[in-house]
Amino acid sequence: MVSPVMAKLKTQCFSFWYLKTGGGIQLKLNKLFYESKTTQTLWTNPLSDPQDEWVKVSVTLVITEQINIIFEAVKKIGITSNTIIFYVLKLKCSFVT
Q: How many CA atoms lie within 13 A of 81 on its CB side?
């Protein structure tokens, strides 16, 4: 799942919830730099994350150029069925500085 292009901003927060049923899936939140087409991993789920319950994640974004936010789910070999649901809570919420 990929966000729309986000313009150059100051430090922002990005919050979302996810629900994962079953094991064997690595989740990643990546930042794709619009101009250079390079990525930076912002977050990965812990190996001990709960299954079958909603988990909230908040990540600080420092946006120095236009970016896309990318949710990625990588299934381990041999896993035949799992479900992941993402719910974006706040895409742009400013921190007071």
A: 0
Question: H-type helices in 1-97, by residue range?
Answer: none
CB atoms under 10 Å from CB of 27, counted, come to: 19
Query: For residues 81 and 71, what is the distance between their CA atoms, to the nearest angstrom?
Result: 19
Report which residue type is found at 94.
Answer: S
The one-letter code for the residue type at 48 is: S
**Per-residue pLDDT band at 16 (split at 50, 70, 90):** confident
pLDDT band of residue 95 (cuts 50, 70, 90) is very low
Q: Are 20 and 57 in contact (CB under 8 A)?
A: no
Would you give the DSSP letter of residue 71? E
